[in-house]
Amino acid sequence: MTDTTGSHEVARPSGLRALELDMRLLGMIGAFVAVCLVFNLLTDGRFLTPRNIFNLTIQTVSVAIMATGMVFIIVTRNIDLSVGSLLATASAVMAMTQTLVLPHWLGLGLEHPAIMPLTIVVGVIVGGAIGAFHGFLVGYLTIPAFIVTLGGLLVWRNVAWYLTNGQTIGPLDSRFQLLGGINGTLGTTASWAVGIVATIAAVWAIFQARAARRAHGFPLKPMWAEASIAGMAAVAILGFVAILNAYEVPARKLKRLFEARGEVMPEGYTAGYGIPYSVLLLAVIAIVMTVLARRTRLGRYIFATGGNPEAAELSGINTRLLTVKVFTIMGILCALSAVVASARLGFHSNDIGILDELRVIAAAVIGGTALSGGIGTIYGAILGALIMQSLQSGMAMVGVDAPFQNIVVGTVLVVAVLVDIIYRKRIGGKV
Fold first, then answer.
1. For 266, which DSSP code?
2. Is the pTM of this model over 0.70?
3. Are the CB atoms for 51 and 373 separated by under 8 Å?
4. pLDDT digit string (tens) for the chain, length 431 residues
């Protein structure tokens, strides 16, 4: 069809097809909604309460953070079975740092303002170093990633045990605990402010991408389609903030907070929790990882290597160094996940991160990351983590035993891979 109006929109599909939505993403969202509705029915409406949604979000963060890194690992045709054990080692190091090392070496008390940042820096360095070591073994010594990280699963879990002599370490610094999400939230006013800013940024990004397509002469969606997508994004962001703000802080806790400030709580005063700091951290990591994947040379190299390693190497990409970088990123994200997980507990426990390997890999695969390499999205992995946590949380509320929960999770993982294979075969057939 010839465009006689000077616009790029004439040849675009009409109706819902004009939205050009990712059908796999829509399927995942549909599955998540179905899971929520089923468990809400089975729990007599308790599953979709603001309180449970708040708890569900902070429980998802730790796995979701690592799942964003697992996308890069799997995209490059590798696997990392050591993430839960690496998390445990980073958690043990950070717990020892703030309760033993810093107080004895620098004379810093547990509640000193420098404790939290120094602890996180130490944890990130340790996680990054371990990840880089794994990457060196895989990239330069050509040991299969499965073997390296399987060994890491055993090694780092027991390193964490020896660091703490098998003891639970705590309580952790109160500022550090704010990153766990239970006690650390923005409050309702700041949450609305963040939600509005995020909405404006999302709408701006959508129309900025439209302007870029126009500048390069690419076909454009109809304006109503762009506006519809922007509207859906705004509803999703602001609706999420509204739900978190609807979860009210218990009156007893509010009263203690007022008493700690030497004030009297006004009669009938209420306050909502708002967005947890841990969820805000996940959002920042998701944005950084998405930009890294889509807008940087490193991201292009990662997906090019996963698509065809031989061609990538022949084109001049240093695939060995790339492997080290990818595993280093994974190690850093494991350390950040350890911050959230240990802060949420308030202490370091020897069983922290157990079976996180299963959950993280499952989240990435359910989110659309192809085990054959070259394909994966950050938002898909986070949605996959949310689906996994919803399943586990829902089953726990219904009263399903923990062993059967793991059976369901394993089954869902296998089915997700099967569905992904069938979907890609159909897409390939159409092409």
1. P
2. yes
3. no
4. 444 444 444 445 555 565 666 677 788 888 889 989 999 999 999 999 999 999 999 999 999 999 999 999 999 999 999 999 999 999 999 999 998 888 888 777 777 888 999 999 999 999 999 999 999 999 999 999 999 999 999 999 999 999 999 899 878 988 999 998 878 899 899 999 999 999 999 999 888 888 888 888 888 778 877 888 889 999 999 999 999 999 988 888 777 877 777 777 787 777 889 999 999 999 999 999 999 999 999 999 999 999 999 999 999 999 999 999 999 999 999 999 999 999 999 899 989 999 899 889 989 998 889 888 888 999 999 999 999 899 989 999 998 888 888 888 888 878 877 877 787 777 664 44
Residue type, 3: D
d(CA 268, CA 252): 12
Residues 6+ apart with CB under 8 A from 300: none
SS3 of 340, please?
A: helix
CA angle 125, 60, 327 (to 5 degrees): 35
Domains of the chain: 19-184+276-430 (1.10.3470)
Helices (H), 216-276: 223-246, 251-260
